[in-house]
Write a structure and sequence with these properties.
The structure is a homodimer. Helix content of chain A is about 65%, strand content about 10%. The first copy, chain A, is mostly helical. In chain A, strands 1-3-2 form a three-stranded antiparallel beta sheet. In chain A, a hairpin with a 7-residue loop joins strand 2 (about 85-90) and strand 3. Chain A starts with 12 loop residues before the first helix and ends with a helix. Chains A and B meet through helix 1, helix 2, helix 5 and helix 6 of A and helix 1, helix 2, helix 5 and helix 6 of B. Chain A binds a DNA duplex through helix 3 and helix 4.
DNA sequence: AGATAATAGTTGAAAATGTAACTAACAAGG
DNA sequence: CCTTGTTAGTTACATTTTCAACTATTATCT
């Protein structure tokens, strides 16, 4: 360990990111959990459908970077709770087109509203410049491997 | 959603943070997994002991912000693999003081070395200023609730 | 001292996740 | 067509996490 004594977990980005992510998710999590009985995966799926329109599970898979089994289970549960409906595609019956129901759209709107506000709270003590840099760095980290 | 059409998941900090955290953890994860058969919880416990010296499970609990059951199980496994040893405290036999073994220290050193390098890779395309801001923002998010 | 509360840590069951194997539908080459 | 390969999605099983209950030990209050 020679001169490595100064290496702290707080200097280690993966750790910091995980901590920050957990902390930041906490407050929002309780909302979709308690109010709608959703898991994070379910909220993500609902969001993708609500935000980008009808699509198949595969498309969500690619966009959301979630494993297909997670999506499969999330869709099943969202369907049971009547937040999402599925309709087989005539042309290719392997797919099913997923749509948000009325109820789903209401939940989506509510959650988005809160998310928006919540996001604002999270960054409110940062300057505009800090916020911009933070978001930009995160975006790059989220896509590019080290 | 009226005028909320521009609200994207990519603008939502908890999502961005989670994505970035997952992505950033990926490369490092394989190291402690494949080379030492460790889980993330175990690596964290080992790190805390290696970096900050002997302490009880409770202390790790507070420092690392991990649930006590996670730590209990991590310690058990680390002990089985001879990375950590435990010694009852005379004064209060509810506690057990945890220490890193020779073998544990070697693993710790190796992982730290890699972590250090890995961290450098992650930030290498950011400017020094961006990096500083990123770390500072994350540190604050990691502690303060929104 | 004796009853009660608090603390450290463990254990067990339920929920969630990850991995791999599977089914069903389509595609393409012979 | 018919074999082989690919793709979308589901299911089964093992691992991990979470939550609640539990044990053992110490602290506190009267």
């Amino acid at each position: 360990m020679q001169d490595k004594g100064d290496f702290d977990l707080k200097d280690f980005l993966p750790y910091l990111l995980n901590l920050a992510a957990e902390e930041a998710s906490d407050g929002f999590q309780t909302l979709y959990k308690d109010r709608y009985g959703m898991l994070r995966t379910e909220w993500r799926v609902l969001f993708h459908l609500g935000r980008y329109g009808d699509m198949t599970a595969k498309e969500i898979c690619d966009r959301a970077r979630m494993h297909k089994t997670k999506i499969s289970r999330a869709v099943t549960k969202l369907e049971q709770r009547r937040f999402v409906s599925r309709k087989e595609v005539e042309a290719d019956r392997r797919h099913a087109m997923l749509s948000v129901t009325e109820q789903g759209r209401a939940a989506y709107a509510d959650l988005c509203e809160f998310a928006r506000h919540y996001d604002g709270q999270l960054v409110k003590e940062f300057t505009a410049k800090e916020e911009a840099i933070l978001r930009r760095c995160l975006s790059r980290l989220a896509v590019i491997k080290g």
